[in-house]
């Protein structure tokens, strides 16, 4: 059915399936929508084939044609309710001139770190239209690919960025870290330098996400992957406060439709109530959080996204379906739930197991609605 909602807070009228956006806005839906963090990735053989043609991960991510191709691949396999831009959370520091590389078996590495006063003084918000044009071009191209000849779009498109703190972790450490010793030491010893980094990062994330919205992203997500590495108190000062600044600076309407904002702090269950108070539309939860208790705590202030353990997808199909039902039953027959993993999908996940999960989420959530409305 072609949707023709005209109120400013309503979803875009060209969407054939707006279930994901309705759930983020805590509106009633016929079933619980589902998408998966890293749904376009190494667990899919077609993704690996495209990456091989691109020559490298960055060759893939920085080419709008390839980025569009891999964004669409999981949608051809599964009836997911949202597409997410294929990119990386480290595009902003790369655009700042830090020199991003992906080392086989080691993950992301930067040629230059940000550790001294001089390093920090050189930081500046990148020119998004120049340095990150490949991302906004990909957003526009994906939107076109999701839209048929009659102007009807299949499902919504999600844009994203890393949080200011998570970006800072990679910028200071130079790559991934087990203990975040260098970045946390800076935060405690030289909070003035850390706040300067975070302020530049926040301004950059605002500009970057707004550019994605202008290019066609219909919802945006802030990935605070390393917020949970901080102590209580430090989390609020160095992570949450800057996510709040980002949220306050984002465009919340575009083309007459509300643009929902999701934030996800891995390990952030302790601060759920505070996260729900920063102005976002939805809070992502990892698998350590009881979903029903979380819903009772936040009420109707925000939608919740999550939160099945990604490792469940290594279990037999019957167990996958059982665990999916448990998550849905925990949330209950209430509006405002987007089903997702509690973190990104593993590269070793059998693709056919994802099909079992998607089918069970759609089937069981419809049954919950029908029973609750009987």
UniProtKB/TrEMBL annotation:
What biological-process GO terms show up in the record?
A: protoporphyrinogen IX biosynthetic process from glutamate
Residues forming the Uroporphyrinogen decarboxylase (URO-D) domain are: 33-42, 158-174
Which EC class heads this enzyme's classification?
lyase
Q: Name the PROSITE patterns on file.
A: UROD_1, UROD_2
Q: Which GO terms describe its cellular component?
A: cytosol
UniProt xrefs under SUPFAM superfamilies = UROD/MetE-like
Site location (Transition state stabilizer): 88
Q: What is its EC number?
A: 4.1.1.37
Per the UniProt record, one Pfam family is URO-D
Any idea which positions bind substrate? Answer: 38-42, 88, 170, 225, 343
Q: Where this protein primarily resides, as one coarse class?
A: cytoplasm
Respond yes or no to whether keyword Cytoplasm is given for this record.
yes
What UniProt keywords apply to this chain's record, in alphabetical order? Answer: Cytoplasm, Decarboxylase, Lyase, Porphyrin biosynthesis
Subunit text = Homodimer.
Per the similarity annotation, which family is this?
A: Belongs to the uroporphyrinogen decarboxylase family.
Function, in words = Catalyzes the decarboxylation of four acetate groups of uroporphyrinogen-III to yield coproporphyrinogen-III.
Protein name stated in the entry: Uroporphyrinogen decarboxylase
